[in-house]
Design a protein that fits this description.
The chain is of the alpha/beta class and 308 residues long. Helices cover 45% and strands 21% of the residues. It has 2 domains: 4-84, Winged helix-like DNA-binding domain superfamily/Winged helix DNA-binding domain (Arc Repressor Mutant, subunit A); 93-308, 3-Layer(aba) Sandwich (D-Maltodextrin-Binding Protein, domain 2), CATH 3.40.190. Strands 3, 4, 5, 6, 9, 10 and 11 form a 7-stranded mixed beta sheet that branches. It has a two-stranded antiparallel sheet with strand order 1-2.
Length: 308
């Protein structure tokens, strides 16, 4: 007889496409995992996975099975959360994924206002690498995510949450440090420290697009790629080049050895995005997730109205 454990084990192997990684993810003994997947294949009567020394490959039948299995677990999760919410005695906290290094005050304000206005629904904060955010949402390991944007967000909803103006960050004493404002044309002639796309693809995409639009085909001088915010600030502080950073982060991390000059270009801003997974088959969004999404949208609209 097929059991939920068979489906859960198959899903792990199919998504990892590797039995060892799936066994570590569950976690369970490798031989027991392999035996359970065989039992499922025997029950279904078709080969779902192709095993070879090079790895594990999902068959067309397995891909269809994986799609249906995900739907089963989606339905179970929604049913469980719905029942607990209606019962009222046990409210599950919303799981909020935050891209590592995202320290903007607007994020803190968003979470603090929610705790003040909706104290009955708690928040569990989960820090994630940006590149893992989409998969965590698809697997329903988190309910809502905040990042600087994903270039590929298939199967997810991604919309702007808020934005901050960009500043030019440079070593104190730099020739441009005494200017009240700078134009992008001033920046593109400088050695640049940029965000590594493997670290923050959304930041890299937004800033790179802005700079290359201003450069209009001219070559940019990339003096360094930063794989973390600490590396970004260290390279700039050491005088290797200048970089673009949003006001929100610098409100949290101002340093006396660094100078900040606002960009005069009104398009020079960095957008933080909110992401979530829509329900299957046109079902309504879970009530708690819907309330949180509406909460963020209300903050965004209020901020836009208050802006000069």
């Amino acid at each position: 007889m097929i059991e939920l454990r068979h489906l859960r084990y198959f899903r792990a192997v199919a998504e990892e496409q590797h039995f060892h990684r799936a066994a570590e993810r569950i976690p369970m003994d490798l031989s027991a995992l392999s035996r359970a997947v065989r039992e499922l294949e025997d029950y279904v009567g078709v080969e779902l996975l192709v095993r070879s020394p090079a790895g594990t490959r999902i068959t067309p039948a397995g891909a269809r099975m994986l799609e249906e299995v995900r739907g089963v677990f989606d339905a179970i999760e929604q049913a469980t959360r719905g029942a607990r919410e209606v019962d009222g005695r046990e409210r599950l906290p919303l799981r909020i994924g935050i891209a590592d290094g995202l320290i903007q005050p607007m994020l803190s304000q968003c979470l603090a206002l929610w705790r003040e206005r909706v104290p009955e629904i708690g928040l569990e904060l989960i820090e994630l690498r940006t590149l893992l955010m989409a998969e965590a949402l698809r697997r329903e390991e988190i309910d809502v995510g905040f990042t600087f944007g994903l270039c590929v967000a298939e199967g997810l909803v991604q919309e702007p949450a808020w934005s901050y103006s960009l500043l030019v960050l440079m070593r104190a004493g730099h020739a441009l440090a005494g200017r009240p404002t700078l134009a992008l044309s001033d920046v593109i002639d400088q050695p640049l420290i940029v965000c590594d796309p493997a670290y923050k693809p959304g930041v890299h995409h937004q800033v790179d697009r802005l700079l290359r639009k201003e450069a209009d085909g001219a070559e940019l001088t990339i003096a360094g790629n930063a794989g973390s915010l600490a590396s970004f600030m260290t390279q700039i502080g050491a005088g290797y080049g200048v970089g673009l950073v949003d006001v929100g982060h610098m409100q949290s991390m101002a340093r006396p050895d660094l100078a900040m000059v606002p960009l005069a270009d009104p398009e020079a801003e960095l957008v933080t995005h909110m992401l979530w997974k829509p329900p299957r088959d046109g079902q309504p969004l879970h009530a708690s997730v819907r309330r949180f999404v509406e909460h963020v949208r209300a903050m965004r609209d209020a901020s836009a109205t208050a802006a000069p």
